[in-house]
Prior knowledge:
Low-confidence stretches: none
Helix content: over 70%
Shape: globular
Mean pLDDT: 86
Strand order of the largest sheet: 1-2
Number of helices: 19
Radius of gyration: 22 Å
Amino acid sequence: MHSSLWLTLLIVVPLAGALGSMLTRKIEGRAYAVAVVAASVEMVLTLVIAVLYNNHIAGAQTFDFATRHVLSAPFGLAYDVALDGISLFMVVLCALVLLLALLGARDKRREGEFVSWLLLLTSFTMGSFVAHDFLEFFIFFELTLVPTYFIVSMWGGAQRAKAAMKFFIYTFTGSVFLFAGVLYLGFLHQHETQGALTFAYSALSATSMSHGVAVWLFIAFAIAFAVKAPIWPLHTWSPISYAEAPTAGSIEMSALLAKLGSYGLLRFTIGLLPLAFVTMRPIILTLAVIGILYGSALACVTPDLKRLVAYSSLAQMSFITLGLMAGSKIAMVGAVLLMFNHGVITIGFFLIIGFVERRRATATIKDLSGLQGPMPVMAALFTVVMLASIGLPGLSGFVSEYLILIGTFATHAWWGVFGAFGVVAAAVYLLWGYQRVFHGRATGANAEVSDASTKERWVLAPVIVLIIVLGVFPHPVLERISPSVQQLIAHVAPAGVSK
Length: 499
């Protein structure tokens, strides 16, 4: 198979699965089977791509599987896809999220439509991560709104309509700034080169501009990506959306769509606008630190398990932002690694909460206590995921958080100090939440719940394996991420990034 077809298949397979699921939705269980087959094929494809990926293409160039086809030269439209070490593991995460969400968070209400929306969301997210053209990225980025809106509004909880509308308005408004910035940058490049209109990443990265223009574009891009990530104070849509979405929707938004925000911040905001990096860095670092502390504080007092994970995700995504903006290669590598690790950890959190909610019909902490007695295996699995999120040495969260902290301390020590408080706070709210849910004596309905089934254990097995393996042996992942981060830093370095 020609190398350029691999990335196209990543976009097409979920689309085909969505179409197949819709066509077979009237036959009970058939749509779900089609979706699982499509998700399994997608997972295999990403693993093959990860094995075939060459991070030393043409010396310093680290983009692989590249292909570009101009669709409309006057409008600057092109199908342009490529993969590097930064997007590689986002693609793997995307396939993993889809497969585990289908297997562990099945929803039989209008199942054909539900799995079709999940598959469409995967296709659009894949397109965003492999897009090597800024306008193409924006189109895929914007398309993710549609399936997410319907997943939350049609299959969510009691406040699903409010949650879906809040998510849509926030994200769509942020995207207006992004669209204006994309068009401005494209036309600026055309005016500078006196050539054809293009939004190709390689072309835009060489565009000359004044410092003032770079700052305004940085702000426009950062607003859109800060909403998606989310970054304080543009995060207020996330707690209600994560809490009201069905389990599969919560997994998709927290483990995957949030990464589109941090990925866009790194790839397009920092990568294309190095002139504004030094100017904007203290502001974004401050917002990141506030997000870490604010998310941690609210996680301590929230009465709902899903919201606890939502506020924890706000703190973790802010930690990723801290690493991206710290201005050192070590911190950036740690941030990219945490993007993947946090996604895996969040899958585990929401799957376990979904399993508990399925048994008890609630995720309210005060209604859950003493579950360790009747559910010892589920408690053990939650413990592993929780300790990884805290950053226990030997588990995946530690490596990425350690790299971010030492990289940040090297360039911005005070921000690193406040960021470190977030690690301590995570231990407080997660351990306290665990105690309230699993410790004590189970009474009433809590005493009668069943432990993790064989299927549930198998669904969680990949999460636990990745948490342990990436905690003990992260080198294969780091050696693929590092050259791509180094290449990006070589472009941004004149603006004050430490190599």
